[in-house]
Design goal:
Rossmann fold; globular; 194 residues
């Protein structure tokens, strides 16, 4: 991994019921600001999105929020101090987040976070990128998702090495190490069925 200059964070537009989600999101934002890593995120001003973005800005960081026009009002816009990029739709949002980022961190979130995560993992499986993807499994939040991936493998719909397309950590304290030690994508995940 070369120098990390911009990190995309996928996370919820809600805070969730466990206060640890917001605490960890704030800590991640603070870490990004302190390490001069630009935060790229979905542009919302509520939920975990606001937690990570506000903390990054308060730590002196650079924040880029990417939000579709139709969500701008629904998600109460961005946060003060962030650069905002308004796009036409969800596909353009994900493409722009991908374009601007060196790696991805997945915090707890809802269906939108799942959508972003699955798409970025799929692009990596299809060898469209080799950027690190790290799930922060706060208090086991991602355990059901990881069980679903295991089911995909166990029932013959994916090679065992698809688990190597992403890494899982328990705390944001482990994120930078996980990114630095992320393995390269193994071509077998794409070609094993041929």
């Amino acid at each position: 991994m070369t120098k990390l200059s911009a990190l995309c964070v996928f996370c919820g537009s809600r805070a969730g019921e466990d206060p640890a989600y917001a605490v960890q999101s704030e800590k991640l934002g603070q870490m990004l600001g302190e390490h001069d890593v630009t935060l790229v995120y979905g542009g919302g001003g509520i939920g975990l999105m606001a937690s990570v973005a506000n903390a990054a800005i308060q730590a002196g960081g650079n924040v880029i929020g990417i939000i579709p026009q139709f969500l701008r009002v629904l998600e109460v816009g961005g946060v003060d101090g962030a650069k905002e990029i308004v796009v036409d739709g969800m596909h353009e949002r994900k493409a722009k987040m991908f374009e601007l980022s060196d790696a991805f961190v997945v915090m707890p979130g809802g269906i939108g976070t799942l959508d972003e995560s699955i798409e970025i993992i799929t692009w990596k499986q299809l060898q469209q990128h080799n950027k690190p993807i790290v799930f922060v499994n706060i208090n086991g939040y991602w355990d059901p998702f990881l069980a679903l991936i295991a089911q995909v493998i166990n029932t013959g719909f994916g090679h065992d090495k698809i688990k190597g397309l992403y890494q899982v950590v328990d705390s944001v304290d482990q994120v930078f190490d996980a990114i630095n030690n992320a393995p390269d994508v193994d071509a077998v995940v794409l070609h094993s069925h041929l």
